[in-house]
Amino acid sequence: MQRRNVTLKLYPNAARAARLEAWTRLHCELYNAALEERVVAWRKAGKSISDFDQQNILPQIKADRPEFVELGSHALQQTLRRPDRAFQSFFRRVKAGQTPGFRRFKAGKWFSGFAYPDPAGWKLMQHGGRGATLRIGSGDTALSVRARGLHRFGDQAKPNDITLTRKGGGWFVSVTLRVPDAACARERTADMRRGLDFGINDWATFDEGPPIANPRWVREELPRLAALQRQRARKRKGSVRHKRLGHGIARLHDGISNRRRDFVHKATTRLVQQCAVLATEQLTPKTMSRSAKGTAETPGRRVRQKAGLNREILSAGFGMAHPMLAYKAEEAGTRLHLSNTRQLKPSQRCAACWEIVPKTLADRMRVCPHCGHVMQRDQNSALVVLIDAFNTQDTPGTGVAARPKPLPRQRGKSRSVTRETPATTPCV
Ligand SMILES: [Zn+2]
C-alpha cells in the first residue's frame, strides 16, 4: 500500500463558500485560544499544558458553543494539535539553550484552512470523469461541494484524509489516497536509454535526438509581471489599489507556477514512459542557481529584473523535476541514474576520449583538443552521464559500456535511485 496525494479544486457556491469561510474562522479561533492558554500557562507558571488536557476540553467547548459541533471532532482535534506541535518545537529550542519566540496568533484571513486527519466526518464521491463531490458532516447540516480533478489510480484508491485550503480566493482539497502497489504502476512503452542534461536555453538536452525546449510562456509573462510591480510601487501601501495590484501579482505568480508544474509533470511522465534507463546529474546548488545571463553569443535581456524570478521559477523547475522523475521512474520500472557532478564533471569531460577540458560557458560547441571530437556542449554532458550510468551499473557489459574507461575511485559515488524492469505493454 502506498500513499499518494492529489489536489482537487472545489467549486462552492456563494453560500457554501461563506460556510467554509466561517468554519475556517472558528478553527482559527480555536487555534488562537489553545495557543493563548499555552502562552499564559508558560508565562505565569512556567509550565506546559499537554495536548491531552486541551483535547479534553473539546466536549465542553462544543456544549458552550454549538456552532463548533458541525466542524467535526476529528478536525477540531487536528487544529488543536497545531499549537501543540509548535510548542513542542518551542520547548525543544528552549532546552537547546536558544531563545525562540512564541508562536504568533493568526488573523482569520491568514489561517490557511483545516484538515480531517482520518476517513471520519467526510466523504469524497468520484463521479467518473473529472467530477467529484465532497461532503462534510452528515444529516441536514452536511456541506456538499462540487470538486474537479482526476487521479489515475481508479477505484482501488481509498481516500484517507483531507486538508481544505484557501488559496488566491479559491478553495482546494488535498486528498491523501491509500493506493495498492499494483495500481501505482505506470506502463512503459519503450526501452530507450537516454542521457539528459537540464538547462536554460533548452529545458532538457539528450545525448541524441531533439531537446525539450524551455517553454516560452514563462518568459512571455515577465513583462506583465514587471509592469504590475512597477504600477504597485507607485501606489500607497495599505491602499485599496495597492492591495488590488498585489492580488493581480499573486494571481500571475500562481498562473506561472501552475503552468510550470503542469509542464514538468507532463515532461517527466513522457520520459519515464519511454526509457528503461535515464541518466542525469545529481542535483547540486550550483546547477540549480545557474546564471540567467545566457551566453556571450546570446546574452539574456533584462537580466537583473529576471534574475530574481528566474531563480525561483527555474530552480523550482529543476527541483521539481528530480523528485518527480524519482517516483515516476520507480512506478514505471525505469532505472534513474544520478551522476556525481563533482567527480564526473560532465560538462568538461569528452564523451569520446573521457579527458577533462576546462572551458567557459561561451563554448556552445565543444571541440576536444585530445581527440578532435565535436559535439554540442549540453549534448556532450548528456552522453557523459549516460556512459556513467553504464559504467556504474551492477551488471556491466552491454553496448556503450565497453567504450570509455571507468573513472578511478568513481565507483559507488554515482548511484541509481531506482531499478530497471522490462517495459510493460500498453493495455488496450
Ligand atoms: Zn576527446
Rg measurement, Å: 27 Å
How many distinct helices? 10
Query: What does the main sheet amount to?
Result: 7 strands, antiparallel
| Strand content range | 15-25%
The overall pLDDT average reads: 82
What structural class is derived from the secondary structure elements? alpha+beta
Bound molecules: zinc ion
Query: N- to C-terminal separation?
Result: 26 Å
Strand order of the largest sheet: 2-6-7-1-5-4-3
Helix content: 40-55%
Spans of at least 5 consecutive residues whose pLDDT stays below 50 are 395-412
Shape: globular
SSE string: EHHHEEEEEEHEEEHHEHHEHEEHE
According to DSSP, the number of beta strands is: 15
Question: How many structural domains does the protein architecture include?
Answer: 3
What attributes does this structure have?
binds zinc ion; seven-stranded antiparallel β-sheet; globular; 10 helices; 20% strand
Question: What can you see in these coordinates?
Answer:
Helix content is 42%, strand content 20%. With 428 residues, the chain is an alpha+beta fold. It is built from 10 helices and 15 strands. The protein has a 7-stranded antiparallel β-sheet. The chain folds into 3 domains: 71 residues, no CATH class; 102 residues, no CATH class; 225 residues, no CATH class. It is globular, with a radius of gyration of 27 Å. The chain binds zinc ion. The site of zinc ion (ZN) has 8 residues, from loops.
